[in-house]
Amino acid sequence: MSLEYGHRPRLLFLTNLFPFPLDDGATFKTYYTLRYLSRTFEITLVTFYRSQEELAFREEMGHFCKEIIAIPLKRSKWRDIGNVILSLFNPKPFLIERDYSRKMAKAIEGVLQRGRFSLIYVDHLHMSQYVCAQEPAKKVLDEHNVEAEIARRYSQIEKGWLRKGLAYMDYRKLETYEPRECRKYDHVFVVSPRDQTLLEDSGVRNARCIPIGVDTQRLLPLGLNPGSKTIVFIGTMYWPPNIDAVNWFSHEVFPLIKLKCPDCRFVIIGKRPPLSVQKLARDRNIFVLGYVEDPTEHLRDCAAFIVPLRIGGGIRVKILNALAWGLPIVSTTIGAEGIAVTSGENILIADHPEGFASAVIRLIHDLPTREKLSENGRQLAVKAYDWEKVYAELDVSLKSSDFLPVRPGEKDRGAS
């Protein structure tokens, strides 16, 4: 197919998250992937949405997508219970079953019947159930995380016997389901070398590592407040790994910090915090703010940006953003997994309550260390994780599989 002016190859992009606003790591990645691909492709976006508020951002996505088809995704406690029961009697994991929608299947079928696409780009494993292996178009699966690994880690951490058992069951199903789905695709993109190794160990031979990029021209250093004693966590608060992270930090780590710094503050920012997180605010030093449209003022007053994750996969966009902002970071090993950081140079890493508390206390009292981590972290973000450099790897992969050449000098349509 020719790439003559006005004849752009067509791409069908499927995602389970509406790619705007940029209020969590998954939407950051999806948004910038779409933005980069729109330089070459005419994009039809088929996406779930969770609220009417998300649909208000259709115009923003219209800068990159010729057509947008949005299907509602309804979740509730009772729907989840029903999907758990369904998953007990079929090989499909609960994680996948709960994102099945007849409306979505019908919408995708209709789009494919209307015309041919040069490339089908599937964003998240959850959307792979809508793509037939026999579909003639070239196909890419973008694995934000290796889902089986998240389920495995969750089953190890969870203490409740029912949730632990269900998580382990989903892990065992995903062990089979995820590699099988990956084999339907010409390429599987992962965000870390570890994720690539995990898939290769399960028999997947078409995985390629392309890290997540951040917009270092938009995310500029925020500066440091020398007298700050504020600890900040940002994350989507209905995601189980984040819930576990703030509960573990609040119960196991924060009391040790208060012994040395009784007037410190812990600020939790993120939409839809569950009751277990809201209850943390009973401690007068803990502030659960929920969704904050612009967290800049809280980040400027940040002695330590923490990532106390004990469950996870892929890489954490929150760390990449914090590096770009020049924030001093304390993370667990799992939290920083897949990112080329060095403890003591551009981040502090600790995995046990005493060590994590000591690292945070050090940043509160040691301004030179804060300044060192801030400067070195910003340099790392610009050098290794700027989105323009990172997503150039997409060009390499698409060209290597003849998915069509990239038109030289193409600019973002509508991008600023």
How is this structure best described in words?
By secondary structure, the protein is of the alpha/beta class. The chain is built from 17 helices and 13 strands. The strands form two sheets. A seven-stranded parallel β-sheet has the order 3-2-1-4-5-6-7, sandwiched between helices. Strands 10-9-8-11-12-13 form a six-stranded parallel β-sheet, sandwiched between helices. Helix 7 (147-157) packs antiparallel against helix 8, helix 10 (240-260) packs across helix 14 and helix 13 (317-325) packs across helix 15 (367-384). It is globular and about 65 Å long.
Count of extended strands: 13
The rounded Rg comes to: 22 Å
- For this structure, what is the CATH class of the largest domain? Alpha Beta
Strands in their spatial order, largest beta sheet:
3-2-1-4-5-6-7
What topology does this entry show?
Layout: E1 10-15, H1 25-37, E2 42-49, H2 52-55, H3 58-61, E3 67-72, H4 77-88, H5 94-97, H6 102-114, E4 119-123, E5 138-143, H7 147-157, H8 161-182, E6 187-190, H9 193-201, E7 207-209, E8 230-234, H10 240-260, E9 265-269, H11 275-278, E10 286-290, H12 296-300, E11 304-307, H13 317-325, E12 329-331, E13 348-349, H14 353-365, H15 367-384, H16 387-390, H17 392-400
Parallel strand pairs: 1-2, 1-4, 2-3, 4-5, 5-6, 6-7, 8-9, 8-11, 9-10, 11-12, 12-13
Helix pairs in contact: 7-8, 10-14, 13-15
